[in-house]
Amino acid sequence: MKRSLALGGIAAGLLASAVVATPAHASDSIHSVALANTPFAAKQVASFWFSEHMANLVNATPYDVETKVNAKHVSGGGPAASTKPGTVPAIGDEKKSTSTSKNVNLPKTSGKVFFIGGDGRPHWCTATSVQSQYHNLVATAGHCVYDTESNRETLDKWVFVPGYYQGKTPWGIYVGKTAFTHYDYDVYEDGDRDYAFVTVYNGVLPTSAGVDTYEKVWQTKSQAWRDKFRLEHDKTTVWSKVEITPVPGRRLVPVGTPESKKFQISLWDFSKANFGKDPKGDGPFDARTGVDTREIPAFVYRSNRDSYYDAKTQTLYFRTKVENQPAPVASPSPSASASPTASASPTATPTVESIPNQGPAYKYFKRTFWGNYDVDYKVSGKVFGIGLKDVGRLGDNVGGQGLAYNQKIGSSVFVFGYPSGSHPDGNHAYTGKTLKWSYGKTFKASSSAIKAEELVGVKSSFTGEGSIGSSWLLQYKTSRRLGYLNGVTIGVSDTDKNGRIDTSVSPYFDGETYGVYKSAASLWSGKIV
C-alpha cells in the first residue's frame, strides 16, 4: 500500500483533468474491503472490546500515525469543485429547520473509533455518524481504517463508540462491516483522498460474560505455531493465554528417538506394552517403557491390601513382606560357685523362653510408569464469550450528519473531535477524554509530506493525537446538533513555527468524495445478535 508514485506539475494537472472527466460514481475509483463480514465475526470483535471489564477500551491510546504534517496556505491553485455543489441532509433534518441558537451544543454523532494498530496495541481516532439509507454509516480519516504503518489491508477489530467516555459506551458498540475509500488512497496513499466511510452493524451492549476453551493437537511443532499465530491474529476471535504444550503422540518409540519424550502413563498403558509382566516386579520391561520406584513411609500407604492404585491409575502403591526374625533365646544362668563353706543348693536358675513371633513386617513402595512417545503439540487457550443484546441502528440512536461537497473555500465550519497529546513546545493542552470544538473559515492548503496538493485548512489548536478523523461540519445548527460533514481532520500543523499547533487540514470533499460516500450509503449491514 505504500505510495509508489509522486505526482506534481504537468503530471498532476493531467491527472486532475482525468479525474474531472471520470464520473463521480465510477466504480474503478472506489475501493471497499470487509472488516467483519459475518455477524459471528462481528460478535467476536465486540466481545474483544467488552471483555476483561473493557480493559482494551480503557487502555487504548490515541493513534499517532501521520498526525503532524508540514502544511501551508495556498494562494493559487488548490482544490476545485469537480461538479456542482451538493448536499445530503442530516438524519432528522431532511426538512429545513430555521431555528437558531447562540450556544454550541456538542453533537451526539461524534465518538471514537477503536482498533488494533500495527504495533498490536489498542488505539483510537475520532469519527462521526453520517446520513445513509440504513442509518449505519461512519466517516473518519482513511488512515484510521487502512493500516499505512504495517501495510496490512485494514486495522484490526474496528469499532465505533459514539459518546465514549472512560469505559462508558452509552449507545453501544458498532462493529465495522465494510470500509470504503478512494482507489488513489488505497493504492497510493494519496493524502488528497485520506477519508473513509464505514458501514457498521447494529449496536450491541453486554448482558453477561463467560469463558470457553479451545484445544487442538498437532503432529508437528510448526503446525502448532501456525495455529497459535492464526488464533492470536484472527480478527474474528478473542483468544487469550494461548499456549503450546508437548503431549504424547500415538506411538511408543525407543529412548533417544528425535522429537520424542518420556511421558508419565497409566498402569493400563504400561501393561499393554508389557503384557503378562507383573507391574510390581523387577522386569525386564519393554525398553520403550520404564518405572520409577521409591520406598515410602508406612503412614503414607492407605490400604490393608498388598497393592492399590490412584484414581487416575497412574501411580501404583504396593508392599512386600519382610518376615520378623525370632527373638534370641536367653542362655541359662550358670550356677553360682559353691562357697567352700556353704552346702550345695539343689535348685538351678530357670531358663528364659523365646519371644513369640509378632507376624510379618512390610516395606512400602510407590511406583509410577513412563513411556517414550513421539511428541505431538497441543494448542490450547481461552476465549471470552460475551452475551450481547441488540440496541438498534446507529443513526436511530445518535442521528447522522449530512454531507456537503464541492463547497466554496472560505466557508465557516465547526470542528468536533477528541484532541490529545502535546504541542511541539510540550504544552499538554488536551486529554482526549472529552469532545472539544473549534471554529473557523476554510482556506486552501497543501502538504508535500503526504503528497497532498488539494487540501483545505482551518485555524485550530487541536493537537493531532486523537483528533485525527474529527468532523468538519458546515452550517451546524446547535439547537439540533446537526449540520453537513464537509471534511475530516487528517493532520495538524504548526504553520508559524512557534511551537504551537495552529492548523488542521482535511481533504477537499468533491464529487469523487460523494461517489465513495454514495457507494457506502446504500448498503445494509444488519444485526449481530
UniProtKB/TrEMBL annotation:
Residues 1-26 form the signal peptide. This is Trypsin-like serine protease. Keywords: Signal. The keyword Plastid does not apply. It comes from Microbispora oryzae. Residues 326-352 have a biased composition (Low complexity). InterPro entries: Peptidase_S1_PA (IPR009003), Peptidase_S1_PA_chymotrypsin (IPR043504). The keyword Phosphoprotein does not apply. Gene3D superfamilies: Trypsin-like serine proteases. Residues 74-104, 325-354 are annotated as: Disordered.
